[in-house]
Design a protein that fits this description.
The complex is a heterodimer of chains A (622) and B (415). Chain A is of the alpha+beta class. In chain A, strands 2, 3, 4, 5, 10, 16 and 17 form a 7-stranded mixed sheet that branches. In chain A, strands 12-11-21-20-19 form a 5-stranded antiparallel sheet. A 3-stranded antiparallel sheet of chain A has the order 1-8-9. The longest helix of chain A has 24 residues, at 4-27. Chain B is mainly α and 415 residues long. Chain B contains 18 helices and 3 strands. Chain B has helices spanning 10-31, 45-65, 68-73, 75-87, 89-92, 113-129, 138-155, 161-165, 171-176, 181-200, 202-216, 227-251, 254-263, 275-285, 298-301, 313-345, 350-374, 392-410; strands at residues 94-96, 99-105, 108-110. Chain B is globular and about 70 Å long. The two termini of chain B are 13 Å apart. In chain B, 46% of the residues are buried. The chains are: A alpha+beta (622), B mainly alpha (415).
Chain lengths: 622, 415
Amino acid sequence: MRRLLLYIIIITTGFIFIGRLFYLQIVDESFTGLSEDNAIKVVYDYPQRGYIFDRNGELLVSNQPSYDVMAIPRNVKTFDTAEFCSILKITPEELTKRLDKAKVYSPRLPSIIVPQLTKSEYAYLQEKLRKYPGFYIQKRSLRDYQTKNGSNVLGYIAEVNNKIIEDNPYYISGDLIGKQGVEGQYEELLRGIKGVKYIQKDRFNRDIGPFKEGIFDTLPKKGKDVTISIDAILQAYGEKLMENKRGGIVAIEPATGEILSLITAPSYDPALLMGRQRSANFTKLYYDTIARPLYDRGLLAEYPPGSPFKTINALIALQEDVVDTKDRFYCNHGYVYGRGRKLGCHAHASPLDMIPGIAQSCNAYFANVYRRIIEKYPTPQEGVDTWAKHLNSFGLGQFLGYDLPAGRSGKIPNANYYNKIYEYPTYKWYSTATISNAIGQGEVLMTPIQLANMTATIANKGWFYTPHILKSIQGEPIRDPDYTKKNYTTIDSKHFIPVIEGMHQVYKAGTASALQVAGIEIAGKTGTAENFTKINGKRTQLTDHSIFIAFAPVDNPKIAIAVFVENGYWGGRYAGRIASLMIEKYLKNSISRTDMETWILTHSLEDEYKKPLSGEPFTINK
Amino acid sequence: MAKGSISFDWVTILIYLLLVSFGWMNIYSASLGDAPSSLFDFNQIYGKQAMWILLGFFMIVIILSIEAKFYMKFSSVFYIISLLSILGLFAFGKTINGATSWYVFGGVSIQPAEFAKVGTALALANYLGDIQTNIKLFSNQLKAFFIIALPALIILPQPDAGSAMVYAAFLFPLYREGLSGIYLFLGFAAVAIFVLTLVFGPVYVAIAAVVISLLSMLQKRRKRPGYLVLLGIVIGSIALSYSVEYIFENVFEQRHRDRFNIVLGKEVDAKGIGYNTNQSEIAIGSGGWIGKGWTEGTQTKGQFVPEQHTDYIFSTVGEEWGFAGTSLVIILFMGLLFRLLHLAERQKSTFNRVYGYSLVGIIFIHFLVNIGMVTGIFPTVGIPLPFFSYGGSGLWGFTILLFIFIKLDAERIAF
């Protein structure tokens, strides 16, 4: 026993120690991460965000430095709050609130306390910063807008929220991320990749050098500069013309599918959503639920297309071989399709064949054409589905697939849809039940970009490139097959010739003959769409939407455009004028019809928009 | 083995070299500055330690070349020099980290307590090795205790409780030579009661003492202790328990209480008094299976563990070499202690055996208390890890202690 005692004690001790070490080093995971946080500081180096240029190389968006005051709550010691607050121009209560919020996010990770100081605020604070342990300055780059236009196209950048941080490990609190528009769509291209430096700290939280000589550190990768397809001059001009109006304009280059202009009205200065006032401005724009400046009407608004839709019905009829361009139809101020049911029309010569039918936008002509399409098939279901399939090939009734992060599918009704609303087979329905489709009213809905793309497709005689906003990256043209492969419609190329001729006649002698521009041959189509709203639960008709589609020059289309002006009355009144001015601006870069320009600039529709809100009875279409 | 043929125990020497060199590697890492300079840059801690190690080798040569009899003959002289050197601290000592335990000559500081263990071990061995000494006699026990307690009592008020505590190691040779086991038992029981009182309070300890003694009544009459003895044990336990409570609350200073409370898990204050232990556990815990690699420890580089190159050197092993490294060190120490026990047992003379047991006891107590502290099992008591921790005095003290025994072992036939 006397010999063995020490052996036993030593063995016991050894086992206890090895057990304890096994627990500390292998079993207990809590020290592994803690150690890293404790001794290693991670410093991010934010790269310059890529610049955005327009199609002519005009700089639209560049960067400016900004300085965020960051805090790591765990390292914050008591400090002179009064002085700190006076430098940063915030109240002590606000400071306490923000520090508490930062602590809730994480005591060990940095949070923004005051974002986006100006250079002079930063210079003053930097002198004093050593007096505030736990605080430091994070330099970032903010957007510097060289344009006041296209805020809906460009999008904006904002601080990431907690949801983004959870979903995407790249982002940490306080990072900026592109939202909406090009900034949102091409976030990863534009932002580049932030660099990381791991810094070894000592127990006093002092930096004592790079961790492992920096082998884990990465250099920031600068964001890529992008050129977008927008023509800044055209965009600015369109926005100017749309002042005091609501609606959307989309212009596309038919040969490439590049979006030349994407206008929504009302709009706002992109610089509003940047800097320390960003949040206040955003709130103001966001809560303007009447004008809805953040709502991109060019992409999101679904309007009944109205008469421009007739062109496509004519194409389907030719493709289905149910009419000949020489077939004439009578019109007696409209088309009677049932007991006392009539699709009204305006006064014009009668009967008409296809080309003057388009030029005069005769409702009766297209009612006949539409019925022939549907009634070609044994059942109206088959007829409507065939008709819808042709429309789908134009990108209608479905998402177009363009490269912007907002959109709507529009609506092209099919047999299922009508079966449901007419409760088939309990009740039967026939082509006349859907007759409004003949003239682009009724169930058909399209967004301005869909309508513009339809116009470009007609200009191309049957094919289109998916509209897109990105033209080149760092000077390299895009190669994404989504935007560089032609989409063919189900309509043969030859059928487009009479329809285009019809649209040309619209401009030469028809409903848009007042819009002629010397030296430019335009093919267009006016549209006037009835629309309704609910006032106190009662369906009330408002002044018609003014719609116009056009492309020019007819023999070599450079621009296809669709214009919607909400409650602008007939097509030629607002939309037609705006479209023809924009075409002239784009093709000639000058305006010959200054009286027309002045008319548009001086006419406001604000009174029209106030009517349904006034609470008083009002008249429409005046 | 014939007289005069010298055979040193190479196993012990090998383990010694392994511990010293592995220790130096960790000191190098723990004290590495921003710009690594020459290994023998004497302005750097690792450079100084390298020098102590090399000078230690010369000392080893000297120790091994002196005849073994010399150490026995002059044991009293060593003992007296030891006592004088620690007494002298009261007059000439310099205070470092709150303890007046150092002489400073020029730039070199020496901690005589590290050498006093050698003198005490020699003196105790000499006394017990005397043919006239019988440890079973109370008067002889008293003399032996006196030899041990004298240096401990001088060191204690410097204040250096850790170094004084090491003298408890001399109970092991006394027990081996025939000291009644009751001393060890009472010592162990006292420690147990002390800890249990702090954890559960004196009332429960008193109840436990009564219950255990009542249970012992169930044993056969012949085996069970007498009623008076039992009563004495119960009363003694309860009295000790209550006095521990009293001492803890009234005599101890707050810092002492804190140290115990942390280990007993009563208080977790990672920023204040618990900082050392907490940082040390973090560093060791972050090592995982194989550690972060030599000189790659982030905690070590950041110097998060205070005194890491001295008392907390083991945390560097934990962080940079992982479980593989720490268990290797534990096994090396166990191997060294077993080897030394084996050597001690094969000695023919009582002097050699007592010296060997003293050596084992001292290394063991250091090993136990130091690693217990660094891994958070024991309260914070600042004593170094033998052969490992930075410090010339400590390294030389242990080297002298060990190599005198190697020399004694090599010439064991001569006695």
